[in-house]
Design a protein that fits this description.
This protein has 354 residues and is α/β, with parallel strands linked by helices. The protein starts with 21 loop residues before the first strand and ends with a helix. Strands 1, 2, 3, 4 and 5 form a 5-stranded mixed β-sheet that branches.
């Protein structure tokens, strides 16, 4: 990065930001403002890189047209999957997609300018949004370090490993997302504002809706009969619950006195069902964290996939391996996931009550 006079900055020896890092400013109305903003972003990332390893940072895109920037990002490999912002119980305003550059796994940051630019406020003039923007950027930076650590331990896995069956594919989508967010939140939790309360609120909302939504999906399956669809829907919904749990658990783990079982969570109506899986998730994440970057195999990661499978079975989607390539899914008849019309039959009710 160069200063306003075109001279290269002299950076501290302990920074990890790449010297040839590319910045892209999209949708800025004023070119001079955009250049100045990117210059300041570089300075801030340089400071962050003294505590978060940004060696494998590919580049940074700051965009007012955030959705378009995600869709148009060159990920360095052929894929039909289009990146889209999270919309629902949580709204995504930044992302750290994994890309391939010259055969190497790297991470590119895409930031929604409407939320990220508060980080550029002058010292002493910070608004209430400064801490949120700082944490937002630090959180995405932490993805760079977490992704690089996994890739170093297990090369040719990210974006390149193909699974021979739908079950392993679903498991690993959840495993990677769940572990990533736990580790990222634990690394960035002390930078900027503390997001734990917000994550707890989101987790509570997701937990309240998970079982009822899964049961409705199974009811719909009784009509459409597509096993692949119901498996993907239920595993996706349960994966979201594990992911949002991991956001919260990672954030509180970064606190001086972590509280993983606040009353706002444990007193919820659905926590009784979730409690044993939640305890196992805490143990699995702590085990992974204790070996960060030194993992010898994928067994500890697979423990998260086992939790996911057991959750699905408890909901009513049972998976069994017939072979490496063939997975059998059984959707047993249960009262809470049967359409209303069959339940009007006394014989059916009697069978379900057994």
């Amino acid at each position: 990065m160069q200063d306003e006079n075109g001279k290269a900055d002299e950076l501290p020896n302990d920074i990890t930001i790449p010297g040839d890092l590319n910045f892209s400013a999209r949708g800025f109305a004023d070119e001079d403002y955009a250049k100045n903003a990117m210059y300041k972003f570089h300075s801030i990332l340089s400071v962050i890189s003294q505590s978060i390893d940004l060696t494998n940072l590919d580049g940074v895109t700051v965009a007012f047209d955030y959705d378009e920037a995600l869709a148009e990002l060159d990920r360095g490999y052929e894929t039909t999957y289009k990146l889209t912002a999270t919309k629902g119980v949580a709204i995504g305003v930044a992302m750290a997609p994994t890309v391939i550059r010259d055969g190497m796994i790297k991470t590119h940051l895409v930031l929604n300018a409407n939320y990220a630019l508060s980080i550029l406020e002058e010292p002493g003039e910070e608004s209430e949004y400064f801490g949120q923007s700082l944490h937002l950027v630090a959180h995405e930076c932490a993805h760079v370090e977490v992704t690089a650590a996994f890739d170093k331990s297990f090369p040719k896995f990210l974006l390149q490993k193909s699974h021979s069956n739908i079950l392993d594919n679903m498991r690993w989508q959840v495993i990677l997302a769940t572990w990533d967010e736990y580790a990222v939140c634990r690394i960035s939790g002390s930078i900027g504002y503390d997001p734990a309360d917000g994550y707890l609120e989101t987790l509570g909302q997701v937990l309240d809706d998970t079982t009822s939504q899964c049961h409705e999906m199974i009811k719909a399956y009784r009509i459409h009969g597509d096993v692949g669809q119901i498996a993907a829907e239920v595993y996706g919904k349960l994966g979201d619950l594990l992911k949002y749990s991991s956001y919260f658990l990672g954030a509180v783990a970064a606190q001086e006195t972590p509280e993983t079982h606040p009353a706002a969570l444990t007193e919820g109506a659905e926590f009784g069902w979730f409690a044993p899986f939640y305890e196992r998730l805490i143990e699995a994440q702590q085990a992974l964290w204790s070996e960060f970057g030194k993992w010898e195999n994928l067994d500890t990661f697979e423990a998260i996939g086992d939790i996911l499978e057991d959750m699905a079975e408890s909901i009513g989607v049972e998976a069994s391996r017939e072979s490496d390539d063939l997975i059998n899914f059984n959707i047993p008849y249960r009262r809470d996931s049967m359409p209303d019309s069959p339940l009007s039959n006394p014989l059916m009710r009697a069978l379900l009550d057994k």
